[in-house]
Amino acid sequence: MKSYRKELWFNTSTRRAFINITPQVEESVKESGISEGFALVNAMHITASVFINDDERGLHQDYKEWLENLAPHEPIDQYSHNRTGEDNGDAHLKRQVMGREVVVAVTEGKLDFGPWEQIFYGEFDGRRRKRVLVKIIGE
Amino acid sequence: MKSYRKELWFNTSTRRAFINITPQVEESVKESGISEGFALVNAMHITASVFINDDERGLHQDYKEWLENLAPHEPIDQYSHNRTGEDNGDAHLKRQVMGREVVVAVTEGKLDFGPWEQIFYGEFDGRRRKRVLVKIIGE
Amino acid sequence: MKSYRKELWFNTSTRRAFINITPQVEESVKESGISEGFALVNAMHITASVFINDDERGLHQDYKEWLENLAPHEPIDQYSHNRTGEDNGDAHLKRQVMGREVVVAVTEGKLDFGPWEQIFYGEFDGRRRKRVLVKIIGE
User: Fold this and answer.
1) ipTM above 0.95 for this complex
2) Neighbors of chain C with 3 or more C-beta pairs under 8 Å
3) Which of A96, A98, A134, A139 has the most C C-beta neighbours within 10 Å, making it the best mutation to test the interface with C?
């Protein structure tokens, strides 16, 4: 069995952002030399997500508005977590809806995707350096 | 390390449906000849889910009503995504709540399940042919 | 390829609880002797979750209130599932938001975590014995 590990770094200019990281994950699969296996892609921070959906700007706007409705950022003092001095209580909730990680099959040396699947980094408390882990195992 | 891959196809007669796919995944584990490993089961389409829960009709009705409340199908024009000509903006949101994939342990050649765990395909934009990927790795 | 399996048992004194199970999973990784691979940690029951987030009491209180708002326990008869004689319809919904499982990379014999990642058992219908599965594969 082979294994491969890489960290991807992000520093978004806005609090919330969705970034298509499919090219970096595809590159990782190539570098790994693994043709059959699983690729795990996970946020290493607990106010961010990795998820798979469509690379369509309108949809991303819908996600932002929907998540804001489900877990509003303000008022800040509605979250007990923010009594620690943080203002990111909402981000911990949003990340649970969108998920921490995806596991993608690797087949014949490629991400084994349906027609529209793309991998996104979802940032809910940005403006600082944060990481995504890519770990691939297989043969 | 062995690996196994299979696609399951669906074409539901209704927009939304939950289908128990446990027998097909169990069959895949048998076919794979893998006794210890992981089975990944994921929707290959971004308006559908794969999830694990109870095979109980009342619960499935609860899920449908709850998801419709969290992300209503209508009015269609509430979703920016639907400006692309689609009417499935809600389906992309519902799928995030229910999830894209499950990873199930394979132990002694069987899905390593708790007492009530069953795998479901969750369709939120049906009435066309769509796929689920089963990928198993192990020994 | 090596594989390792362990069950963790819980019996919470309250209906809802969050328990940090990171030490038990770290112990499992050690026992497995696996240095590079994946650890799957999943609830074996369908009214419980395994998820990764922060070990901060205020945040856990926020999760409880938020989930209660998204899927209230009462009135019991709002859920079709409860017509079976159960009163845990809400717990099946809450578990979908928080997730069934996490997959964590194992690197150099350790859980490959970001700075604040901790693994939690999330109980939404407790006061009876329930299990979490830890399955690790790799080399």
Assistant:
1) yes
2) A, B
3) A96
